[in-house]
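Here is one such protein, fold included:

. . .
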Amino acid sequence: MSQMQILNAEAAKLLPQYSAGVAKAYGVTDASKQFSVSAPMETKLRAALLESVDFLGMITALQVDQMQGQVVNVGDYGIATGRKVNGRFNTDQGVGGNKFELKETDSCASLKWNLLSTWANSGNPNEFLKLMKENATKRFALDMIRIGFNGKTIAAGDTDPVANPNGEDVNKGWHQLVKENAPDQIMGEEIYFNPDADVNALKSHEYKTLDAIVTDLRLTLIHPSMRNDPRLVVLVGSDLVAAAQIKMMNLADKPSEKVAAQQMDKSIGGLRAYTPPFFPGKRIVVTPLSNMHLYTQKNTSSRKSENSEDRKQHEDKYWRNEGYAIEEYEAYAAVDEDLMTIGAQPA
């Protein structure tokens, strides 16, 4: 049986203050009615979103003018130095015609009355208002990352959050764009990560360490001009990190070795390693973080902040046109989670 949702007196008093604060921040009279976000506030909203989740601030997040167009060049991954006999040396740092396309994107961060009442009972109105503001900003930002790593399709009609809990049908994320437009950048055969393997008896496509997988990705799939680029990092799923750490912890018999095992995911294959939020547990990606782009169309953002009595919750809403892009496909190399097995390769 579901719990009855009740809004206590303190929360009921504070909610209008929160909505009034939202209205004042955006320069509108009533935040409970959908309103367009002005250009200056759109910039501030975007800055708040990028600051709320560390990883989102590491990728390339930009505002663009059009719904579709050519990917914005920020990386300049090729060489920029040389000679020309009859003039000045120059290189074309274009992106080979890579395109982006934005889609309608609608977010709603809701808070049930019972939770709001609990927050209000803390006795600190400022803390209550801060929690509400941070909840909305972080929820929006985390979903941007969640869809970026997991998005596979663009639903023609309604999206289905039950069947697609990670936004698989909201938009096409970075990995999906590479699978469709540059499939050779993703290993095409089944990969086996087997920490228990005998290094002298490894089978084809079987790896004993994550270092070996990452090194193979970098040396075989990353373009030669970018293989030693200091901006390259490795994104590695938590399932793979856990499997490697468990093996190292079991073998460690000194405190220093246990510490090394706990920190092994900070550097893999000589590259700085990250396990971002919502990153699939058995996926590995080698790329510069700046190679992953997130675009929002200028002058399309709208907000709404209202207490919904019908649904017994407060709702913060954020609508915009948004999409994902990869700047340089040859700077992206990956093992897809569907082709990754943790364990020994069958005989």
Remarks:
- The CA atoms of residues 9 and 89 lie 71 Å apart.
- Residues 257-262 have pLDDT under 50 and may be disordered.
